[in-house]
Design brief:
Length: 295
């Protein structure tokens, strides 16, 4: 049977339209949501991500504030900007696009961010809140995007075995934390596979839902998924392609062509999880801005 191709573009657009209505209501009450975007250096992928995030903000009516710094920026200078943003009342939340140049400690920058403005949900306080199921903090954008995408596609995760391949702090670990929680859209049995795992295919084949968050093309192959599984591809990899407009094309971590025919549902790359990540960032921005709403 043909798999359901889960359309992240459409789902994210619907969510942005819902948020645009909310923003209009907030503005009518005098609250203008604002998000800051800090970009250090000239990494083309980071520039592209920040561009897409700002475009989505504009569409929803959130004001985006740009902070572009040269790659020679010192850690001290970046910490000073973070401190300014922490105290700037027009900024409800901000992100520092990663990766940062090698001479700057990402941990130090994340630790200096006010947890109340940490819309990426990278600060240890927010990661801790996520672990204990405290919904007062933020939800991390990509993992939350995966959960909402499955929910809106009508795919129940409760009681399912979700096998996540990849244990990054941005995707694998926080996604596992979200999915094990005892609430709607979660309550799954979760396994994380990583480079220390013995015989990964034998485990992914047990997954009702397999999430690929590895960062390498064609890593999840057809022999690794059971018939009828749901496959979520979080990977975004640039592969050279002289025939493509920009000289490269984007592919996920899944061998899509061969895996898709075995699945009941699958997310494509591009147009799957990516746009959801950005929509969830805006959602966190709104959550932060709502704290300023008159009671
Ligand atoms: N680099 C890759 N993904 C992300 C993300 O979600 N947020 C930030 N700030 N940087 C990233």
């Amino acid at each position: 049977m043909e798999p359901l191709i889960i359309n992240g573009n459409e789902t994210a657009a619907a969510i942005r339209a819902e948020m645009a209505k909310e923003v209009a209501e907030m503005k009518a009450k005098g609250v203008e949501p604002g998000l800051g975007f800090v970009l250090v250096g000239d990494n083309p992928a980071s520039q592209a991500y920040v561009r897409m995030k700002k475009k989505a903000c504009a569409e929803v009516g959130i004001t985006g504030y740009d902070y572009e710094l040269p790659k020679e920026t010192t850690q001290e200078e970046l910490l000073k900007l973070v401190d300014e943003l922490n105290h700037d009342p027009k900024i409800d939340g901000f992100i520092v696009q990663l990766p940062l140049p090698k001479h700057i400690s990402e941990e130090a920058i994340i630790a200096a961010t006010d947890p109340k403005k940490d819309v990426d949900c990278f600060h240890p306080i927010n990661v801790g809140k996520l672990c204990i199921g405290d919904t007062d903090g933020f939800f991390p954008c990509t993992p939350y995007g995966v959960v909402v995408l499955l929910q809106r596609a009508g795919i129940e995760v409760k009681g399912k075995h979700v096998v996540i391949v990849g244990r990054s702090n941005i995707v694998g670990k926080p996604l596992a934390n979200l999915l094990v929680q005892k609430r709607d859209g979660a309550n799954a049995t979760v396994t994380i596979c990583h480079t220390g795992t013995k015989d990964i295919p034998s485990i992914t084949r047990q997954g009702d839902i397999v999430v690929a968050a590895i960062g390498r093309p064609n890593t999840i192959t057809a022999d690794m998924v059971k018939e009828g599984a749901v496959v979520v591809d979080v990977g975004v990899n640039r592969v050279e392609d002289p025939s493509a407009k920009r000289g490269y094309r984007l592919v996920g971590d899944v061998d899509y062509e061969n895996v898709a025919p075995k699945c009941s549902a699958i997310t494509p790359v591009p147009g799957g999880v990516g746009p959801m990540t950005i929509a969830m960032l805006l959602m966190n921005g709104l959550k932060a801005a709502k704290r300023r709403m008159p009671k």
